[in-house]
Design goal:
Radius of gyration: 21 Å
Number of helices: 11
Bound molecules: S-adenosylmethionine
Catalytic activity: adenosine(1518)/adenosine(1519) in 16S rRNA + 4 S-adenosyl-L-methionine = N(6)-dimethyladenosine(1518)/N(6)-dimethyladenosine(1519) in 16S rRNA + 4 S-adenosyl-L-homocysteine + 4 H(+)
Order of helices and strands: HEHEHEHEEHEHHEEEHHHH
CATH class of the largest domain: Alpha Beta
Organism: Pseudovibrio axinellae
Pfam family, one: RrnaAD
Function: Specifically dimethylates two adjacent adenosines (A1518 and A1519) in the loop of a conserved hairpin near the 3'-end of 16S rRNA in the 30S particle. May play a critical role in biogenesis of 30S subunits.
EC number: 2.1.1.182
Length: 279
């Protein structure tokens, strides 16, 4: 693919605005237009929703989202050096891009738009999991977003989609799969980025389940933290310190106290959360 719009090529934008990548901001820029377009397309029809993008950087993915027909893109960027380049994009696309300067951890995307929101981002690796956890643990469900299409290090992607029996199965997988359908869409070679990261990346997509199993969220977070915190131990040992009568609670959840965290599926953890939520 030669070009997606009439704006200057990303390498020129980076040189013109002096956007040498900063490790502290998790900056690995995606300059391959085939890949940015593929990510934008994989999020489906964008013409009826607001896209929230975290960390647009020099704007490669941002441009692909706008070229793919996004009605509106709201992009949150911490690095002020990127703002002039993003402003050029906003002007080119007739104001369909709004840029918010700041830390995405301090913004709730729900407050940024009224209609349906899709979150699409090549996330900075240092805050990616924290951002995802925030979007997964909203009090209301279904949440304010209709899908998340996010790039992570592949190892994190595998944890998000992880199920019982997978090596990467853990807390993140329980939480994500309790409330969402999760998929890894495709991997990206380090060479696709400037500078190349040390690891393979993956695009992960999450869609909210309409009716996840009813579950006390805080209790689920506590139970999974204890169970996977000592994942080699049997539940009767790993959950012992959580509340009195741990063994009886595990049995009340219909599980064997001798089972280990990695053998318990999402429904099992939901049952444990209920059992450990009781006084
Ligand atoms: N979207 C661009 C791309 O695909 O080439 C850049 C992705 S780069 C992996 C991550 C971006 O997130 C950088 O532009 C970085 O400055 C920005 N960033 C890092 N921490 C952030 C934060 N807490 N809030 C908002 N943006 C952040």
């Amino acid at each position: 693919m030669a070009q997606i719009d009439d704006l200057p090529p990303l390498r020129e934008v980076i040189a013109e605005h002096g956007l040498d990548a900063r490790k502290s901001l998790g900056q690995n820029f995606l300059l391959d237009l085939n890949l940015t377009s593929r990510i934008a397309r994989s999020a489906g029809d964008l013409s009826e929703c607001t896209v929230v993008e975290v960390g647009p950087g020099p704007g490669g993915l941002t441009r692909a989202l706008l070229a793919a027909g996004a009605k509106k893109v709201i992009a949150i960027e911490k690095d002020t050096r990127c703002l002039p380049a993003l402003d050029q994009i906003s002007q080119h696309y007739g104001g369909r891009l709004e840029v918010i300067e700041g830390d995405a951890l301090k913004h709730n995307p729900a407050d940024l738009a009224d209609g349906p929101i899709k979150i699409i981002a090549n996330l900075p690796y240092n805050v990616g999991t924290q951002l995802l956890l925030g979007w997964l643990t909203t009090p209301e469900w279904p949440p304010f977003w209709t899908s998340l299409t996010l790039m992570f290090q592949k190892e994190v992607g595998q944890r998000i989609v992880g199920q019982t029996g997978d090596k990467a199965y853990g807390r993140l997988g329980v939480l994500a799969n309790w409330r969402c359908h999760t998929d890894i869409l495709f991997d990206l070679n380090p060479k696709a980025f400037t500078p190349p990261p040390k690891v393979i990346s993956a695009v992960v997509q999450l869609h909210p389940r309409e009716t996840p199993l009813e579950c006390p969220l805080k209790a689920l977070e506590r139970v999974t933290a204890h169970a996977f915190g000592q994942r080699r131990k049997m539940l009767r040992a790993s959950l012992k310190g959580l509340k009195p009568d741990a063994e009886a609670r595990i049995e009340a959840a219909g599980l064997k106290p001798t089972a280990r965290a990695e053998e318990i599926d999402v429904a099992g953890f939901v049952a444990l959360a209920h059992a450990f939520d009781q006084d």
